[in-house]
From TrEMBL:
GO biological process, one term: double-strand break repair
Protein name stated in the entry: SMHD1 protein
Organism: Alaudala cheleensis
Matches recorded under Gene3D superfamilies: Histidine kinase-like ATPase, C-terminal domain
SUPFAM superfamilies xref list: ATPase domain of HSP90 chaperone/DNA topoisomerase II/histidine kinase
UniProt xrefs under CDD domains: HATPase_SMCHD1-like
InterPro entries: HATPase_C_sf (IPR036890), SMCHD1 (IPR038892)
Amino acid sequence: FGISSDETFVITTTNRMEITEDNFSKLVHDGVTLYLLQSVDQMLLLATKERIDFLPHYDTLVKSGMYEYYASEGQNPLPFALAELIDNSLSATSQNTGIRSIQIKLLFDDSQGKPAVAVIDNGSGMTSKQLNNWAVYRLSKFTRQGDFESDHSGYVRPLPVPRSLNSDISYFGVGGKQAVFFVGQSARMISKPAASQDVHELVLSKEDF
């Protein structure tokens, strides 16, 4: 930083708390923005940018479906929510070389648990990392890069064809998690990648939150 050996300086947080040997360990995560100053109360010569990292509150996830679909301009929102749930299966089976199977089941047998909507397909399956990425709020399956492994690797978005299984429901931008929490209060994703013997399961639950 070009500081000479006889020059005094301090390191502070953006709210001017001086970093010392005693409180350094409290900086528990990467990405904290720090100032290197001549004194704690030194006036900043330039505007600064601060990096922040946060996870959405669970209410953002649980209640987002209601907000999303109540804004559906007076239309019955349930078909749109169900269509979004089917979209994952459309994407997952798009590369099938054999039969393309997608089943939609409405389960009302109390002996098997609470009522549920089940969408079952014979697609390529998802790894544990891909399931994890599905759970991340507002992480588009078409733009995941870097540390994020796409949940539909190699999937090519088809040209939108009205009322056709070749079209892409997600073209309209409504998320699967919003659809889940509009229809119910939990999601259970069970998936086995085609090239693996492992079965992965992800549960998102309002009760657990």
